[in-house]
Amino acid sequence: MNATITAIGGFVPTSILSNETISETVDTTVEWIEKRTGIKERRLATSKDQATSNLACAAIENLLENYDVDRKEIDCVLLATTTPDHLLTPTSSKVCEISGLTNAFGLDLNAACSGFLYALEMATTMIESGRYKKIIVVGADKMSSIVDYEDRNTCILFGDGAGAVLLEKTELGYGMMKSILRTDGSGTSALLVPAGGSKFPATMGTIVNRDHYIKQEGAFVFKKAVESMSSVSQDVLASNDLSVKDIDWVVPHQANLRIINAVSESLNIGIEKVKVNIERYGNTTSATIPLCLWDFAADFKQGQNILITTFGAGFSWGATCIKWGVMRKRLPAKSSKND
Ligand code: UT7
């Protein structure tokens, strides 16, 4: 028995932050951003009722509206996020309430850009244990709540969004294969929000220092991302007895188009097999991979092999393979993609 993805949903806010607008506020150019990152625009959750829980619920609602699944049958919601609504209380409890998942328990999981992949692995083992039948894994981040729009090193990169998948069991031989997930603390100071947690609780000083915003040593993180995503992808292929020739699609974390290109080159997988939507959404952290699965779901055919790989703060990184299976029945479309 395997766990397999049977439904997908996604959501991005309507408000667009373009490179043109950023170049009017910090010392950068439209050309620099596009050439160095591949990003043309990102979406921002600007309305007051768009906290991370609302983004997650919008993605779940999109999934439930489009696929024939009863929300009362959902056993569990694993929410990967690095931007919870509050430090205390879990954002997933709000998600269960708003989405009417009255028979589910919710759990927040923070592993930065690797959160969705980690949550997917946890859900896989929960399904394969036989104890849970239907789990929603959602990656949602409102990065605009921790981005310093005066810092040209980071404000060009991030956007807001959410993506959700439904995981169920199958006995047809499709679904989740072996994963390799890794974490070490070597990158703690290279990518973090310094204050607001237990180490440096909020003070007037932390606010004045802008320590509640993301700080990143971009070039160092870039190098580690390329090395880690390339080597963990090779390892996960080997552990699943697959070679690069067996891979139909790659769905990488979307942090920088140059990272994606370098990983594809190092794996010797043609870029035409690599799914990319960073130009429209930027880096949505926990949401990049499910948003990519949602965006390109129509391209994935039954029996195709998909390689997923990620890298993020911590450092945290990993990869998995999926043999794409049978999706649940589609319902007549109710909502457009980007509302
Ligand atoms: O998702 C989590 C993981 N995160 C990532 O994987 C992100 C990894 N890092 C990156 O994507 C890239 O490192 C950045 C896009 C953040 C920066 O690109 P880079 O090519 O690594 O630039 P750099 O940091 O090496 O800086 C090169 C130059 C510097 O100027 P000098 O010192 O050479 O004069 C920077 O000050 O580019 C300058 N620079 C900029 N110039 C114009 C940095 N940001 C900007 C900017 N516009 N926005």
TrEMBL record:
What keywords sit in the KW lines?
Acyltransferase, Cytoplasm, Fatty acid biosynthesis, Fatty acid metabolism, Lipid biosynthesis, Lipid metabolism, Multifunctional enzyme, Transferase
The protein's annotated pathway:
Lipid metabolism; fatty acid biosynthesis
Q: Where is this region: ACP-binding?
A: 254-258
One cellular component term (GO) for this entry is: cytoplasm
For biological process, the GO terms are:
fatty acid biosynthetic process; secondary metabolite biosynthetic process
Enzyme class (EC, first level): transferase
| Pfam families (UniProt xref) | ACP_syn_III, ACP_syn_III_C
Instruction: Kindly give the Gene3D superfamilies that the UniProt entry links to this protein.
Output: 3.40.47.10
Q: What is its EC number?
A: 2.3.1.180
What subcellular locations does the record give?
Cytoplasm
- Sequence ranges assigned to domain Beta-ketoacyl-[acyl-carrier-protein] synthase III C-terminal in this UniProt record: 237-324
The domain comment in this protein's record states: The last Arg residue of the ACP-binding site is essential for the weak association between ACP/AcpP and FabH.
| Assembly information from the UniProt record | Homodimer.
Q: Which family does it belong to?
A: Belongs to the thiolase-like superfamily. FabH family.
- UniProt-recorded name of the protein: Beta-ketoacyl-[acyl-carrier-protein] synthase III
Q: Which organism is it from?
A: Flavobacterium frigoritolerans
Organism phylogeny: Bacteria, Pseudomonadati, Bacteroidota, Flavobacteriia, Flavobacteriales
Q: Which gene encodes it?
A: fabH
